Amino acid sequence: MKAQYQQFCQSEPGLPIFFQDWYLDAVCQEGEWGVAMLEEGGKVKGIWTYFMKQKMGFKYVTMPNFVKFMGPYLPGNPSTSEQHQILTKLLAQIPPVASIKQDFHYNITNWLPLYWQTFHQTTRYTYLLDVSDLQKVLDDVNRNMRRNIKKASEQIKIEHWDDPERFYLVNKKSFDRQNIPIPYTLAQFLRHDAALNLQQRRKLFFAVDQRGQLHSASYVIWDDQVAYYHLAGDDPQFRQHGAGILLIWEAIQFLHNELGINTLDFEGSMIKNVEAIRRQFGAIQTPYFSVSKNYSKTFNFLEKVRNLKGLFV
């Protein structure tokens, strides 16, 4: 099935990067990824990627690190009734598991077949920005944000060091500041980075002041149609200097001038302060579905036990 899926990936220009076989090979390191495929009349009608882990005797489907979206992808423009049929047939191909939890791509706007099978759904949001017209982007940016960009550009310069280890250290500082463990190791990040670098699908941005002090860093990845503001980090002692805002503007210019990509996906966020920045850049709030179902009563009970919170991730 994976060999067939690899052929599909190579022939489907609209397929988001998170669904690409080579990307899944790189990031699905603590479990195994798989794919359901539905082919009719020699054409692929739909695919459904999933990541399966095993713990305490349970097999369950969850989201791997570095993957924003998984689940179904339907080529073309199938009708609602066709979507119902395709999604139902794809779901039936997923192996028996104790639980399924996935974040669907925002192109999937129909989850009724899962509702009928007693799945739960939470609407989440990402933010999409049209960067095809740089002047319009700048005009739509909040006035205070424009002022911060101008001020930061007078004090900060942007470097493009090919130094993923240095990026990881800055990225980790943002988690440390919040007393949250970074969810991936350096080795996991470097494996993910090596795959993206091999495919020439990533760019690192470092914001440095006149003394050579590193303030912030960002990590942008892209597929054929969309770029993603994938990861970022700040040194806590420099957070008020506006480097993070400047990095976003530099990334926008890079997409427009160097890649010719017209859409930037901020990959969220649901966090209030972060959401405000995305919105002040003029990005459009775009909903996507987070779906889940626990098939096992025992798994469901264990998941709800307070001292085991976060066990099945």
What does the model show?
With 313 residues, the protein is of the alpha+beta class. The protein folds into two domains: 2-124 and 289-308, Gcn5-related N-acetyltransferase (GNAT) (Aminopeptidase, 3-Layer(aba) Sandwich), CATH 3.40.630; 132-261, Aminopeptidase, CATH 3.40.630.30. 37% of the residues lie in helices and 29% in strands. The protein has eleven helices and twelve strands. The chain has helices at residues 2-11, 21-27, 80-93, 112-115, 134-140, 143-155, 164-177, 186-198, 243-259, 272-280, 297-304, and strands at 32-40, 43-55, 58-62, 71-73, 99-103, 120-130, 156-159, 202-209, 214-222, 226-234, 263-265, 284-294. Strands 1, 2, 3, 4, 5, 6, 7, 8, 9, 10, 11 and 12 form a twelve-stranded mixed sheet that branches. α2 packs antiparallel against α8 (186-198). The model has no long low-confidence stretch (mean pLDDT 93).
Fold blueprint:
Elements (H helix, E strand, L loop, with lengths): L1 H10 L9 H7 L4 E9 L2 E13 L2 E5 L8 E3 L6 H14 L5 E5 L8 H4 L4 E11 L3 H7 L2 H13 E4 L4 H14 L8 H13 L3 E8 L4 E9 L3 E9 L8 H17 L3 E3 L6 H9 L3 E11 L2 H8 L9
Parallel strand pairs: 3-5, 10-11
Antiparallel strand pairs: 1-2, 2-3, 2-4, 5-12, 6-11, 6-12, 7-8, 8-9, 9-10
Summary tags:
alpha+beta, globular, about 35% helix, 11 helices, twelve-stranded mixed β-sheet, Aminopeptidase, 12 strands, about 325 residues, 2 domains
